[in-house]
Amino acid sequence: MAFDPISILVAGVAAAGAAVQGSPLPPPVADVAANVVAAVEQSAPEWDAQLAPYLEQLPADIPAYAEQLLPPQDTSPEPAVPDAPVESLEPTITVPAPVAPVVAPVVLAGPGSSAPSAVPPLTSLIPGLSSVPELVFDPNIPRDVETARKVIEAALTALGLPYQWGGGALDGPTMGDGTGGATAGYDCSGLVRFAVFQATGKELPRTSQIQFTVGTQIAWDSAQPGDLLFGNWQADGANHVAIYLGGGRMIEAPQTGQLVQISAVRSDMVPVRLF
C-alpha cells in the first residue's frame, strides 16, 4: 500500500490538532493514520537498505562538514583579569585642623588714661592713627580739666558696643528697644548721660533736645575736650549729641546698625559746655 506525501501530511496535521485539543481522531482520519502506520512498517526494511550506505558515511562526513562551516576556535587559555577594586560607599570626609582663636590685645593709649579691660584698641577705630592722641587743653580757657578727662574716659569704655535706641543707663549699657541686636548698648544721649554721671555724679536729662538746654553754648574756637557737641537739627531741636575729644574728633553712638565709635566732627555740630 502506498500513500502520496500530501495524504500523509494531511493525516499528520489532523492527528496533531486532535491531540492538542484532547479529542479523539475522526473515524476517516483514524483509518488513514492506521493505514499510514501499516504502510510505513511494511516499507521500513526497504528504506533501511536504501539509506544504509548514507548512514555509514555520516560519522566520517559530519566532522568534516562542521570544520568547513564553523570558524576555527582559539583554545588558548584566556588571561586572568584581576578583580576591580571595590569602591567604598562611605563618603570621604576631611576634617580641618582646629584653628586657635585670635584674641586682640586691649590697649588704651595716652598719658594718664585708665580703662577697664573691655575697651577695644582705639587705634583700630581711627584710620591712619597709630596711637590715641593726648587730650590737649587751652590753658587760657578756664576749664575743669580733670572732670573733662573723666567724662571722656567713661565714654571710651563704651567703644564697640552697638547703638541701641533708648539704650544706656547711669550705670552702663542696656538693651533699649533691642533694634541694635542682642548686645546691650547706648543711644547718643544715653552715652553722654552715662559718661557725665560716672565723672561728676550729676544726672543729665534723657534726650539730646533737653540736654542742649542744660549747658552753655560756646564758640568753636573755645571748644575743649569734654565739651558736648549737638547736631542733626530738626523742628524739635538737636537730635544728636556727642563728646568732643579735640583735634576735630568726637566719640558718639551714631545710629541703629552702627557701633559706639570715634568719628570726625561734622559741620552741623554746635559745642556746649557743662562744667
Structure notes:
The protein is of the alpha+beta class and 275 residues long. The chain has two domains: 5-63, no CATH class; 138-273, Alpha-Beta Complex (endopeptidase fold (from Nostoc punctiforme)). Helix content is 33%, strand content 11%. The protein has helices at 5-21, 27-69, 145-156, 188-200, 208-214, and strands spanning 216-217, 228-234, 237-246, 249-252, 261-264, 270-273. Strands 1-6-2-3-4-5 form a six-stranded antiparallel sheet. Helix 1 crosses helix 2. The longest helix has 43 residues, at 27-69. It is rod-shaped.
Contiguous low-pLDDT stretches (5 residues minimum) are: 88-132
| SS-based class | alpha+beta
The largest sheet, given as strand count, sense and whether it forms a barrel, is: 6 strands, antiparallel
- In CATH terms, what is the fold-level topology of the largest domain? endopeptidase fold (from Nostoc punctiforme)
Q: What would a concise description of this structure say?
A:
The chain has five helices and six strands.
Features:
275 residues, alpha+beta, endopeptidase fold (from Nostoc punctiforme), six-stranded antiparallel β-sheet, 6 strands, 33% helix, 11% strand, rod-shaped, C40 family peptidase, hydrolase, NLP_P60_dom
Q: What secondary-structure arrangement, pairings included, does this model have?
A:
Blueprint: H1 5-21, H2 27-69, H3 145-156, H4 188-200, H5 208-214, E1 216-217, E2 228-234, E3 237-246, E4 249-252, E5 261-264, E6 270-273
Antiparallel strand pairs: 1-6, 2-3, 2-6, 3-4, 4-5
Helix pairs in contact: 1-2, 3-4
